[in-house]
């Protein structure tokens, strides 16, 4: 269970970072 939540959280964080990076660059 923890793994699924961790994976989903990491995926969300990465997506947010990618969007921010794309907007900045």
UniProtKB/TrEMBL annotation:
Protein name (Swiss-Prot/TrEMBL): Uncharacterized protein
Highest taxon listed in the record's lineage: Eukaryota
């Amino acid at each position: 269970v923890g793994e699924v939540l961790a994976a989903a959280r990491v995926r969300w964080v990465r997506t947010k970072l990618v969007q921010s990076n794309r907007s900045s660059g």
